[in-house]
Amino acid sequence: MPPAPDARPGIRPPPDTNPRTDPVLDFPDRDFGALSADDYAVLGFMGGLEVHQQLDTRSKLFCRCPAGRYSERCEGEVLRHMRPTLSELGEYDGTALMEFKTKKEIVYLLDRGSVCTYELDDTPPFPIDDAAVAIAVEIAQVCDLNLVAELHVMRKQYLDGSIPTGFQRTAMVGLTGRIPFRVPHLGVDRELTIRQLSLEEDSCREVSDVGHRITFRTDRLGMPLTELVTEPELRTPWEMQAAGRLLARAAQATGKVRRGPGAARQDVNVSIAGGRRVEIKGVDNHRRLPRLVHIEAYRQLNLLRLRAELERRGVAAAPLVLPAKGRPWDLSPLVADVSRLFERTRHPAIRVARRHALTVCAVRLPGCGGLLAHRTQPGLNFAHELRERVRVIACPSHREFLIHSDDPHGGVTRARWREVRAALRAHADDAIVLVWADLDDAATAAREVLLRAHEATVGVPAETRQAHRDGTTGFERILPGPDRMYPDTDTPPLPIADAVIERIRVSLPETPWARMDRYVALGLPAAVAHRLSGAPWADLFDAAAPPGGTLARRLAQSLAKRVPYHRRRGRARGPETGRVLRAAVRAVDAGEIRVEALDRLVDAALTAPGTDPDPVLARFRRDGGTPELERRLDDVVARAGALVGRTPETRLRWALGEIVPLVLGQVDPVVVRRRLAERLQRVTSEVAS
């Protein structure tokens, strides 16, 4: 498939564009799991991660409220409205302007046990928390970053309401590091480049978002967290998953980060050839990550195909953007107020809208006929992109608020569509979008429909998107730019003493990649060592101190199977398990217990009531003779006589199932099978004679 030429030669691409400008428009649509690494290379797939990890400190970052204290109690409410501020260069950030258009009322639910006047910007910030700085420096050194000499706190604008001050305080800790990135089952063996690590305060927890009112809880607000940012050098969805897990393990290796739901989240940056960086926010599950980025890659490809079709139709130069002030239907022939045409309609949602005196607005998209049904994501089309933009910015509170002329099941009759087209003086190849809301929201919705349709002529808009459980994404906001950052004049620079850095350096924990190397040296296969190095039960493996070779491999596999099983049932015990497991491994290595009993030994060690290994091992030790085996064989053979009419093989399998658990670890299973088969054959012969 030859690369397509750049459709806009001579125009300097924005800094967030993919370096390849040749979209492969004829690349076939395929489901997740059907593409190889080479296929993603043809697409020009690029990915990067921003991994946020809460730190396990007693206090919040810029005040002394307790960190990690979650509450459903509400002892007060604060209502706020946000407005953008100018950057140092006298410019507004585009994201801040977009959030301002939503006209949100922001409600904060306060619990005085977890929040103070600092979070509400009524008190200057306290000195930055020393414990949080030390943990951030430790994570930076684990990732081999170049540390800054001083922490300089910056303000980052957030007008979505998640931070009551309208900005987040953040400080750079380290820059430009490289860590080993080895994933044997993917054939990956290289270094992963870390662009930066910053220390910042967490945002509020969202409770609800309906119409123009959004509600937050402030208990999580201000908790310290780190943000690790990689370079966009991940080339497949599986590499992105592996890199996310690696960075999570690097932070967790310190033992000073929080675990559990919401404690670690990653923002995922994706682009393909001809596209632009799109950020998927708050992905909290590594298992869902590959499907998400695969679908986003194809969403961008389908948007680029849509752009190519618009260019073929000559729509690319259509002036669709309206002035920010005034009613759109008074400013452009592309918009009309068609409320009167729907005074009597059978469409249920529009009928309810007119009953509440909502405005029905029609928007004409020249030359776009049939393109609103163009597929973008599984089960979704380009009209969904328009609908999401209207939902987020115009904030209609009703569930259904948009239909279009390319939907044969929209519920509007052909006669009514003809009337709407006449009101807009639309041609046969034009698409029509109907939106309904109150007067101001309908005006905002019309502008956003035209703006998003205009962006389709550019290709892929740089935006932030929400992750959905099915792997699809929805619009959240346009991608922030550098104009939202400016220095925090309330916080002085904080020098990081060399003595502090050295004290942290000499006590650094073992890194996941060093642990993997140690396991490989122990004789574990690379794939097994990779899985074990990041597993929660790796400390149990180390506590058992296996000698290496086959026994180490069998123990790693057994722990991988049995530990999750018992933890799901709440039966796995604490540190005392390591002592019992270590004694069990020594007994197997010494030949006192056969290796076939290892799974059962791990079960017994994980659920042992105490730290004494002798009662556990006694059930599996060799008995040193055969009288007990002979007695058990006689008993099982006698009971096998009840299986009258069954085949010899069936009787043997039943008998093995009865006796093997009783002698597991004591006698070779091959010997048991042979002795049992001989006795059953003898009994069968005696009965026949």
Task: Describe the protein's architecture and organization.
There is one protein chain. The chain is of the alpha+beta class and 689 residues long. It contains 21 helices and 23 strands. Strands 1, 4, 6, 7, 8, 11, 12, 13, 20, 21 and 22 form an eleven-stranded mixed sheet that branches. Helix 15 crosses helix 17. It is globular and about 100 Å long. Mean pLDDT is 87; it is low at 1-13.
Quick recap of the structure?
This protein is α+β, with helices and mostly antiparallel strands and 689 residues long. It has 21 helices and 23 strands.
Key words describing this protein structure:
689 residues, alpha+beta, 11-stranded mixed β-sheet, 4-stranded mixed β-sheet, 21 helices, disordered N terminus
Draw up the topology in text.
Layout (H helix, E strand, L loop, with lengths): L36 H7 L2 E9 L21 E5 L13 H8 L3 E6 L19 H13 L3 E2 L2 E2 L1 E5 L9 E17 L4 E14 L3 E6 L2 E5 L6 E7 L6 H16 L11 E8 L6 E6 L5 H25 L14 H4 L3 E3 L10 H8 L3 E7 L9 E3 L2 E2 H12 L8 E3 L9 H11 L6 E7 L1 H18 L6 E5 L5 E6 L6 E3 L6 E2 L2 H9 L5 H10 L4 H8 L4 H7 L4 H20 L7 H14 L8 H9 L7 H5 L8 H14 L7 H16 L5 H20 L1
Parallel strand pairs: 3-10, 13-20
Antiparallel strand pairs: 1-11, 1-12, 2-3, 4-7, 5-23, 6-7, 6-22, 7-8, 8-11, 9-10, 12-13, 14-15, 15-19, 16-17, 18-19, 20-21
| Uncertain residue segments | 1-13
Q: How much strand content do the residues show?
A: 15-25%
- Count the helices. How many? 21
How big is the Rg?
A: 32 Å
The 3D shape can be described as globular
The biggest beta sheet reads: 11 strands, mixed
Residues in helices, as a percent range: 25-40%
Terminal CA distance reads 78 Å
**Arithmetic mean pLDDT:** 87
Structural class: alpha+beta
Number of strands: 23
